[in-house]
Design goal:
Structural class: alpha+beta
Distance between the termini: 22 Å
Number of strands: 13
Shape: elongated
Number of helices: 13
Largest sheet: 4 strands, antiparallel
Order of helices and strands: EEHEHHHEHHHEEEEEEHHHEHHHEE
Helix content: 25-40%
Strand order of the largest sheet: 8-7-9-10
Strand content: 15-25%
Radius of gyration: 28 Å
């Protein structure tokens, strides 16, 4: 399963509303990018709304307040589980809920996701009757060992199963019967939830599924096969394809960007609606033609800064209550040919519109069929 949660993260920096939607598990670059868009200050967590995939929909409204990084860690682990692991996890969650709690701490859920070995799973038992029959036939009910085979069908298997399930505090799941035989592993406290930039700038995948990190090692022989970007310091590039040499050149350019220049590049990719690697390369080589204002996240902020530039503070305070700042800001953005993106305002120095890049025939092997 690729995606476990779809989340909506909300933040209101300086009274301005910011929102990001993201599928989890996500890469560290995607999480860092989301936090940049939300303009999160140190120690501030966004408000999260989440919806679990169908296989895990029993988690909806069950998770206590958490942060994006820890929820992503849970999603990563859940995406790795096989059918038995999914059964054990659901069973542990259900047994926790049976104790009377409406929500479960994220730490407990992460521990459960690593604790499949602490459970017995009977895939073929989804009712008390099936559980009772399994227990009798497998020799778990010693009192029935002496009963002749002909008389076994007279047993109330449903009651046997029910009595055992209630005595053990176990449960049925969508994958069968689950019973805990030992304590869950204590994994949560050992994990590092610090977000770090990966060692690569672009992570790409070949047609046969091999992954390659860029920039490619210097002087190492490089193939010519096409690759597809699966993770990147500029997440807008995920999904784009190109030859290995072209991807390596772009990765080296990205690696050399300062943080503000990288943000400007991401803003430009969004504003230009870049859809191919040749256009992405063209844009990164033209960054010096643009003005990037990361402090602007809404037309209202653009309007307020313009007023503070042309008027004294007293006049600004007097005029603001009588203006539609949002529309005034929109007019200013249109006048300068700029585009307001999730990263800030991007505009050309010559005040020409920031227009969407057209997909053109690629040169030098930049456009590849994947």
């Amino acid at each position: 399963m690729d995606k476990i949660f779809h989340i909506r993260a909300l933040n209101s920096p300086n009274g301005d509303f910011r929102e990001v939607e993201l599928d989890l598990p996500a890469t560290d670059y995607q999480l860092l990018d989301a936090m940049e868009q939300l303009r999160l200050e140190d120690g501030i967590r966004p408000y999260l709304e989440y919806h679990a995939a169908e296989e895990y929909d029993y988690l909806n409204k069950r998770i206590q307040e958490t942060d994006l990084v820890q929820l992503n860690a849970l999603a990563k682990r859940l995406a790795e589980l096989d059918m038995r692991g999914m059964a054990a996890f659901e069973g542990l969650v259900c047994m926790d809920v049976q104790k009377g709690g409406k929500t479960i701490p994220i730490g407990s859920l992460i521990d459960y996701a690593y604790s499949g070995e602490c459970c017995h799973v009977v895939e073929d038992a989804v009712t008390d009757e099936e559980l009772g029959r399994f227990l009798v036939e497998s020799g778990f009910i010693p009192k029935t060992d002496a009963i002749p085979d002909a008389a076994l069908e007279l047993l109330d298997y449903a009651q046997i199963g029910k009595n055992h399930r209630e005595a053990e505090g176990s449960t049925f799941t969508g994958f069968g019967y689950v019973e805990r035989h030992s304590e869950p592993r204590q994994v949560y406290k050992t994990l590092d939830f610090t977000l770090k930039r990966p060692a690569y700038t672009i992570l790409a995948e070949t047609f046969d599924g091999n992954r390659v990190e860029f920039p490619y090692p210097a002087n190492a022989p490089m193939g010519t096969e096409p690759v597809r970007c699966v993770d990147c310091a500029a997440p807008h590039l995920i999904g784009l394809s190109g030859g290995m040499e072209a991807v390596d050149l772009l990765a080296r350019r990205l690696t050399g960007l300062e943080p503000k220049a990288l943000s400007a590049y991401k803003a430009l990719l969004e504003a230009a609606d870049c859809e191919d690697l040749q256009s992405a390369r063209t844009l990164i080589d033209s960054l010096d033609k643009y003005i990037f204002s990361p402090q602007h996240s809404s037309p209202t902020e653009v309007a307020e800064e313009e007023l503070s530039t042309i008027l004294c503070d007293e006049d600004v305070e007097t005029i603001i209550p009588h203006l539609n700042l949002y529309q005034y800001g929109q007019a200013l953005i249109k006048r300068c040919g700029g585009s307001l993106t999730a990263y800030g305002l991007i505009e050309r120095k010559d005040h020409q519109p920031v227009q969407a890049m057209e997909n053109k025939p690629c040169q030098g092997g930049m456009e590849m069929k994947y």
